[in-house]
Design goal:
By secondary structure, the protein is of the alpha/beta class. It contains 19 helices and 14 strands. Helix 14 crosses helix 15. The longest helix is centred in the last third of the chain and has 55 residues.
């Protein structure tokens, strides 16, 4: 893929026509030269806007600033890919639809189509798609110029790594597999931790009890209830029999109480019958004489009459008590007979109740068994889940260790490829910093994380201004020239890359870009400020200065709105 032309449907817009190979420079000038940061001095003429518009045509997310500040503008980008020319048009007011080679399509479809044109993407690998990979060749904003390995589309260490590994032509499956295993490991660990420590989840499953003990108790209780249930005989008249048994019990108790009373009465009569008068005839006679001295004789009866009365009284008492005893004995016998009959009837009903149950009681037992089984099942699930997670944890950690070994073997195997890439990067860095060690380092990361390799772009010269920019410049050109899995034939750098770069290194950077593009027939596109060109003029030959001028495809200024990219004055933050 190489850029041909950026245009708009407004006559005021200043089209950008890129050279098919070599350098293509967009230069920003300023009428009032000021001291200070050159980026700030030259902002607003449209250099960075050109990059944003190229991204816009190549399927970036919706840009609200475009819709608000320049509504209904349509921008078009022509580009060549593997010998075929294509055109993409996109309207600022209808950004969800693009036109690719005359055919309308959604953004998602455009991105998928461009991915097939520009990259050889493997299937089923997360993190590899057109837009994030494009940023490696077409850095856009400030965040894209912080690290050589990182662009603003990289939202995680995994994404940063797998995109670099992919473009370097290394094994992305190793990177993806470690990320997958680590995600699985973290999911198992988090779930296991939640299961063990989360009070709500643990209370739900176990009521905060020991699983093994509680499960054993529940299983014993279930077995006991099921055995009882099997021996139950459901009786439709259970409650009627139960009422009759209760009535019999009450009646039987009353009879027993009456029998006790009768028995006590008989015993009392027996005691009374055993009692005899202890007054002898002599005592009666003595008493009679004493009475005779106190009363007149005619008032007292004769002794014989008194004794006869006493005998008669005793005989009557014995007769009466004997008769009462016989009556009580008959009643007691009747009560005993009734007690035996009632007791037999009660025993029969009690036996019936003992071997039978009411239907609702039977159902209640069944419900209790079901409830206990549900609790036991939850506990068994809890236990099984813990065991399964323990197995999965061990299996996953084992797989991660196997991946460490596989990665070590892979690193030993790909030394030639790493040497090739490193040779390109070192060759570029030596032209900027001849005395500084440099290289791309790739080491196995065996930690429990999603990063398979520790990957770094190094130029060991931290004291020099612009060293980070040099890393970015050299690395991007390494991907362009020695990278794999892509069909991108351009690198586009914003002027911010050159702001802190020493003028000598800046001049050398453009010589490097000239040489590479001439040798490989690719594009190096950059935006520059006038002062950045002026600053390196002393380090360029006459021919090289002419080269810069000849390859300036667009010069922007601020003396009038017509000199800016849009050709009109617009305040816009994008």
């Amino acid at each position: 893929m190489r850029l041909i032309e950026l245009t708009a449907d407004r006559a005021s817009f200043r089209p950008v026509r890129f050279n098919p190979d070599g350098l293509s420079l967009i230069v920003g000038g300023r009428s009032q030269k000021e001291d200070g940061d050159s980026d700030k001095t030259y902002n607003g003429v449209g250099k960075s806007l050109a990059i944003a518009l190229i991204h816009f045509c190549l399927g970036s997310n919706k840009v609200n600033a475009f819709q608000e500040a320049i509504p209904d503008w349509e921008f078009s980008l022509r580009f060549e890919n593997r010998g075929n020319n294509h055109r993409i048009s996109r309207n600022t007011s209808r950004q969800n639809i693009v036109v690719f080679d005359g055919q309308e399509m959604k953004l998602k479809d455009l991105r998928e189509h461009l991915a097939c044109l520009a990259f050889d993407l493997p299937s089923g690998v997360d993190g590899l798609s057109f837009r994030p990979l494009l940023y490696k060749f077409l850095r856009r904003g400030k965040a894209d110029y912080v690290e050589a390995e990182h662009t603003s589309s990289d939202h995680s260490p995994y994404e940063k790594l797998i995109r670099n590994i992919f473009l370097l032509g290394l094994d992305v499956d190793l990177v993806a597999e470690k990320a997958r295993l680590n995600q699985r490991l973290k999911r198992i660990q988090d779930s296991n931790k939640s299961l063990k420590n989360d009070p709500v989840l643990r209370e739900f499953y176990t009521a905060n009890k020991d699983v093994e003990i509680e499960l054993s108790f529940l299983q014993e209780r279930i077995t006991q209830l099921e055995a009882n249930q099997r021996s139950f005989e459901v009786a439709d008249d259970y409650y009627q029999v139960e009422k009759e048994a209760n009535d019999l019990g009450i009646e039987l108790q009353a009879l027993r109480n009456r029998a006790v009373i009768l028995r006590n009465a008989i015993d009392n009569i027996d005691k009374s019958l055993k009692v005899r008068p202890d007054i002898t005839p002599d005592r009666i006679e003595t008493a009679y004489r004493e009475l005779g001295s106190a009363f007149r004789p005619e008032t007292l009866r004769r002794l014989e009459e008194v004794q006869e009365f006493h005998r008669h009284l005793v005989d009557n008492r014995v007769t009466r008590l004997s008769q009462e005893r016989r009556r009580l004995e008959r009643e007691f016998a009747n009560k005993e007979q009734s007690i035996r009959a009632l007791n037999d009837a009660l025993n029969e009903k009690t036996a019936f109740l003992g071997r039978s149950r009411a239907l609702d009681y039977f159902v209640a037992i069944g419900n209790e068994i079901a409830s206990l089984k549900a609790k036991a099942q939850k506990l068994d699930d809890y236990r099984a889940l813990g065991r399964r997670w323990s197995d999965e944890l061990a299996t996953t950690k084992g797989a991660m260790q196997q991946e460490v070994l596989r990665t070590n073997a892979y690193l030993a195997q790909i030394h030639p490829r790493l040497d090739e890439v490193n040779g390109v990067f070192k060759g570029l860095s030596r032209r900027l910093y001849p005395d500084s060690p440099a290289g791309l380092t790739l080491r196995n990361n065996d930690g429990e994380n999603q990063v398979r390799f520790n990957f770094e772009v190094r130029i060991e010269n931290d004291a020099s201004d612009g060293i980070n920019e040099a890393r970015i410049f050299c690395y991007d050109l390494t991907l362009l020239t020695a990278g794999r899995n892509h069909h991108i034939n351009l690198v586009f750098h914003d002027s911010r890359l050159f702001s802190d770069m020493d003028p000598r290194q800046r001049a050398e950077a453009f010589r490097i870009a000239r040489d590479i593009t001439a040798r490989r027939g690719c594009q190096y596109i950059a935006t520059l400020n006038e002062d950045q060109i002026e600053g390196m003029a002393d380090y360029l030959t006459e021919e090289e200065r002419a080269m810069i001028t000849a390859n300036t495809v667009l010069a922007l200024g601020d003396r009038a709105a017509e000199e800016k990219l849009l050709g009109v004055q617009v305040d816009m933050h994008y």
